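F.,

This is the one I mentioned.
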């Protein structure tokens, strides 16, 4: 049941974040999502050990899933807008998959650094906080891309 609710939350959060980026831009959505993730995700990892019911574990899991996935929609749009049509598929595919490969190493590093299960919440909070800071730094230096696809189509006509 928790996984089903979390999946629905991911769907809603991703669509909402993608839609938000059409109003405030990709860069703006990255910054807002980064700030929210920087505060909320480490806090939730630190709160997880205090969950005294399956319901609370579910609440934390749903929030973590939604926050973790909310950035995917604007990133995909951003990547498509960053690359010219001739290399768009390759550029987006490589960027997306290299990012997932690097991000996929986090559980390995967390397990190597946390020597006991009791250290996992703090270690996860530190890692997620550091990743959120890197995400935010990238958000501040990246150019705004909203409208790039429209400009490319207009230039061809």
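My design for it:
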């Amino acid at each position: 049941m928790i996984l089903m609710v979390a999946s629905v939350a991911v769907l809603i959060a991703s669509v909402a974040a993608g839609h938000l980026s059409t109003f405030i831009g990709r860069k703006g959505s990255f910054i807002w999502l980064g700030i929210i993730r920087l505060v909320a995700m480490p806090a939730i990892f630190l709160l997880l050990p205090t969950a005294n019911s399956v319901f609370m574990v579910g609440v934390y899991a749903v929030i973590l899933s939604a926050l973790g996935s909310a950035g995917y929609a604007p990133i995909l749009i951003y990547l498509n807008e960053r690359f010219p049509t001739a290399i768009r598929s390759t550029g987006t595919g490589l960027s997306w998959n290299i990012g997932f490969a690097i991000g996929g190493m986090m559980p390995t590093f967390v397990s190597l650094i946390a020597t006991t299960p009791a250290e996992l919440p703090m270690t996860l909070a530190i890692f997620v906080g550091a990743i959120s800071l890197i995400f935010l730094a990238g958000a501040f230096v990246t150019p705004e891309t909203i409208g790039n696809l429209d400009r490319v189509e207009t230039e061809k006509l």
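The radius of gyration is 18 Å.

Talk soon.
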